[in-house]
Design brief:
- The protein has helices at 13-22, 36-39, 59-68, 83-86, 105-120, 153-163, 172-180, 189-202, and strands spanning 3-7, 26-30, 47-51, 77-81, 97-100, 127-130, 133-136, 141-144, 147-149, 170-171, 210-213, 217-220.
- The protein is α/β, with parallel strands linked by helices.
- Strand 7 (133-136) and strand 8 form a beta hairpin.
- The strands form 3 sheets. Strands 2-1-3-4-5 form a 5-stranded parallel β-sheet.
- The relative contact order is 0.10.
């Protein structure tokens, strides 16, 4: 279930919140004039939907404030704008996408699902380097302190997915679906076994790359 933070000063926003909740989203509604960090309930956040046409704060200032907020800056930001407001919209504000309002709830739900699906895809890159860990996506090679590590195909794919979603807590079910596929019938213990093998190969000394979030899943840890 995707969790959405809806920012709006429009009294009618409660109807949008209720509609999104009926569609299966978990939605928290906050007025834009409030202090975000004090009002937002901490936890996993999949997307921020900011109503830029009904805000007591100047839209650009609101967006920049979100991107500076330590609790919210990593979440994808989607703007909700009118046709008129669209003319003033700038992607430099940190917006990943936008929705033109008003429109039907069906259109909003469909668009949000598409945005979430697109943002959740792993973008193809040549590789990534985190501390002593280097991952070459093209050659399917992994190095720790310059030394090559022998990984199976699934171990590599699991590491790649975790590393390209740094800091995001991923449940065992999500990892099964994204790495093994929706048609895989194995249990979640498969993920635990592969995580244990990855740790034994990658984590030397005190350095931790994969952190266990108890009763939830795992996340890739970036250097502090």
């Amino acid at each position: 279930m995707s969790r959405i933070l809806l920012l709006s000063d429009d009294p009618e926003a409660r109807k949008l919140k209720a509609g999104l909740a009926e569609a299966g989203f978990t939605v928290q509604l906050i007025e834009t004039k409030t202090v975000l960090s004090e009002q937002f309930a901490p936890g996993r956040l999949d997307l921020i939907l900011a109503d830029l046409s009904h805000t007591s704060v100047e839209p650009a200032k609101l967006c920049h404030g979100i991107k500076r907020d330590h609790l919210l800056k990593e979440a994808p930001l989607v703007g909700l704008v009118t046709e008129e407001g669209l003319q003033r919209l700038e992607l430099a504000w940190g917006i990943e996408d936008f929705l033109v309002w008003p429109t039907s709830l069906t259109q909003v739900v469909s668009r949000l699902k598409l945005i979430l699906w697109r943002l959740d895809r792993v973008e193809l890159q040549n590789g990534i380097k985190v501390g002593a860990l280097a991952i070459d996506f093209e050659k399917y090679e992994v190095y720790v302190n310059g030394q090559p590590q022998e990984l199976t195909y699934k171990e590599f794919e699991l590491l790649k997915f975790l590393a390209t979603h740094p800091g995001k807590v991923l449940t065992r079910e999500v990892l099964l679906n994204k790495v093994w596929g929706y048609d895989y019938y194995g249990g979640t213990r498969t993920v635990d076994v592969h995580i244990r093998r990855l740790r034994s190969k990658l984590e030397t000394g005190r350095r931790i790359y994969i952190e266990t979030v108890r009763n939830v899943g795992y996340k890739f840890v970036e250097p502090s």
